[in-house]
Amino acid sequence: MYKRTILTICLLFLGIGTLQSQETNRGVALAITDKDGNQVGLYRESHALVIGVSDYTNGWKPLPGVKEDVKALEKALTENGFKVEVVLDPDSNGLKAAFEDFIKKYGWEEQNRLLFWFAGHGHTLAPPFSPDEKVGYLVPRNAPRPEKQKKEFVRLALPMYDIEQYASKKIYAKHALFLFDSCFSGALLEATRSVPIPEHISDKTGGPVRQFITAGKAGEVVPDRSIFRQQFIEALAGAGDRIGDGFLTGVELGEFLHEKVVHYSKKKQHPQYAKSRNPRLDDGDFVFAVGRNVPDKIFEDFERFRDRLKDGSLGPWMIVVPAGKFMMGSPKDEPERDGNREGPQHQVHIVKRFAMGVTEVTFEDYDHFASATDRRFPNDQGWGYGKRPVINVSWNEASAYARWLTKQTGKEYRLPSEAEWEYVARAGTTTPFSTGDCVHTDQANYDGNGEDYAGCGAKTGVY
């Protein structure tokens, strides 16, 4: 086993929620909590597909403002914790492939949240034999005007019933939100209704849901400078959080966009909101974090960070640890090896990145928790408090501290496993100590007046 050279109780914590790997193409995880701070849901990954069609080539008016909208959306969604994929000016095949490829990559994980955004022209048509029925279409770059080439338009445009099939049949993720900065109508959107905003996040929020919002109805014109996009970003910035709980739900967003876009467009646009017509996909609610609940940025390997607590103070320093593998335990020929506790030596794979406390938890950090939860303050035994490692804390108390950090930050904290601790402590080394085969008192704080460890000359200096 890797030798411990600090003779105190080491409390190291694993912060999972703020980390996701850029190279594995994940957005930031998000813990959803109710008004009492209890976790009622968790998004493990957050992904957004932003599609913008600006340069139309077959009779439709160009929309140069879409390019600006896409950039603004990418920035806002990234800051909100999403991994964003952008597709610009797709033709018919490219538009369908964008949806299908994105769903294949991210739609199978149940705990993911998926957001789809389309900015471009939309159109509504009635099928030949159902004149009273309405079908909404998303218009790709190469689709013609339907009044000139109706069959070709229908062949190339993407109908809303395909979107509905994607939503109900091909996505396994619990929560998916579709936003269309376009104007059209259809059977799905005729279900638009005013939905009461729930007082607080609850267990029901985590149920499966598919939600749809458009910028306007059939026949309305979306301006090139999008009011819908501007108000969506305002909602993400906190304006849409009507009940002030630090979260923005899909229902709140639908109500907010309808109110604001109607007002600022001078009633020229009337956004439509609907949930899936599938009874198994209309229970829950999509959730964004706003304000203090917004997830932190995606961190690089070995980057240090601190999560913010509810009172505005900062939690313990954490450091990002990359995935990898190492030999756990010690070899049989290592001096003074405890064979029963340190073997057999075996290879361990750490498959995902995580964050570990930079140091042992300090009295300062632990006392903050003890004060907030009316717990006893541990005795320092005369060694001193402040930034010194906390001692005289039980495993149950350490676990309670980790749970408290989870509630305070909205990120997942827990005690590390033995393998995770040793992986970090070894830091790529294979010797008994990080300093090599021997450790001196000028390299670590220990009693150097005792017997020389393994005859390596460790008896130097003073305690």
From TrEMBL:
Q: Which GO terms describe its molecular function?
A: cysteine-type endopeptidase activity; formylglycine-generating oxidase activity
Query: Domain of life of the organism in this record?
Result: Bacteria
Q: Which Pfam families match?
A: FGE-sulfatase, Peptidase_C14
Signal sequence span per UniProt? 1-21
**GO BP annotations listed:** proteolysis
Keyword Signal found: yes
| UniProt keyword list | Signal
**Domain Caspase family p20, chain residue ranges per copy:** 44-122
The protein in question is named: Caspase domain-containing protein
**The species this protein was found in:** Candidatus Kentrum sp. FW
Taxonomic lineage is: Bacteria, Pseudomonadati, Pseudomonadota, Gammaproteobacteria, Candidatus Kentrum
